[in-house]
Specification:
disordered N terminus; 331 residues; alpha+beta; 41% helix; 2 domains; 12 helices; eight-stranded mixed beta barrel
């Protein structure tokens, strides 16, 4: 980052204070940021409920990766916290206002200090201020739609998805979960076999034994969160978040327990963290903006569907395929 150092402008400080940031006129400003002692202070806009819990139970972390969307931190218990410049909120996400700075370059394995009120990068002289951040909770809508409306919305979403993903490399996966279609996933050997076995179990309303198929899918395919993980995420999120509104299935509680263990052994820390959230019925709001309207509230918009499909290069369509595999059989 390139910083321009200057004494605090009283007008800028007044604007910041009106947003709830309590800065002294003796603070130094760096590109519109305050610097307290040796740290540049960047205000966080919001944080997810599981991010808040993590910051209360862990005191440190290390950088785990960086992308165009933000920075990943790994805590000692292998949970991944995401510092994001995007507007989309998530259960393990801290959203930072992108007007203030670019994500700092970090040294791998350099310490990061965590607390309920701040995240500090001592080597980089950066501090994320959490005091005024809104805590985001992916609450469940209460009013349930009639089943016929839910099914009509699902049919509409399937049609829109097929149109939007006509040139998507992974449309075969989405097509394969639709009832009556041939399962065909040519680029991922073994995926079709495990997908078929899972769908048979789901159609019989019995998930006992599904861990064998899911465990084989974990870590399979491309991506920071592999394609198989994303598909399982869509399945598990739907089953747990809307369990009370779906046709009952046997074995979900045991599947959840077994999946947590398998994810810790077979895939990335990021995928394992997201799956743990999904078991609690929580996920990035792009997923919920498409999933929840099948059951309650207003119908999702075309923009909501586009946002989900743009969630990573392959993650969005894989997650949606997982959701649809459940909805077309249990709704």
């Amino acid at each position: 980052m390139e910083f321009i150092i200057g004494r605090a402008n009283p007008q800028t400080l007044d604007q910041n204070q009106s947003l709830g940031y309590n800065y002294s006129k003796d603070d130094i400003l760096l590109n519109g940021l305050t610097m307290s002692q040796d740290n540049v202070i960047i205000p966080a806009v919001s944080l997810g409920q599981f991010a808040k819990q993590l910051l209360h139970r862990q005191e440190n972390a290390v950088p785990a990766g960086i992308s165009s969307r933000g920075l990943y931190l790994r805590s000692p218990d292998e949970t991944i916290l995401f510092l994001s410049f995007e507007k989309f909120r998530g259960p393990l996400t801290v959203n930072i206002n992108n007007k203030y700075a670019a994500m700092p370059e970090t040294i791998p394995d350099s310490p990061v200090f965590l607390s309920p009120t701040k995240i500090t990068f001592p080597g980089e002289g950066i501090q994320i201020n959490l005091k005024n951040a809104e805590v985001w909770n992916a609450s469940l809508p209460s009013r349930r739609l009639p089943a016929e409306i839910s099914r009509s919305r699902l049919e509409s979403t399937i049609k829109q998805t097929l149109q939007l993903t006509e040139r998507n490399d992974y449309q075969d996966l989405f097509n394969s979960v639709l009832p009556g279609n041939t399962i065909r996933i040519p680029d991922l050997p073994g995926f079709d076999k495990h997908l078929y076995q899972y769908l048979v179990l789901l159609e019989n309303k019995k998930l006992t034994g599904a861990i064998s198929e899911f465990s084989s899918l974990l870590g399979l395919g491309p991506g920071l969160t592999p394609l198989g993980d994303d598909f399982v995420l869509g399945v598990i999120l739907t089953l747990n978040r809307w369990e009370g509104a779906l046709i009952p299935v046997q074995g979900l509680e045991q599947l959840n327990s077994d999946l947590l263990i398998a994810a810790g052994e077979k895939t990335t820390s990021l995928s394992a963290s997201l799956l743990a959230c999904a078991i609690e019925g929580a996920a990035d709001e792009r997923l919920l903006a498409v999933l929840d309207p099948f059951f309650a509230g207003e119908e999702s918009s075309p923009r909501d569907l586009e946002n989900l499909l743009k969630w990573g290069s392959s993650s969005g369509i894989a997650v949606l395929a997982g959701m649809v595999s459940v909805l077309t059989r249990l709704l």
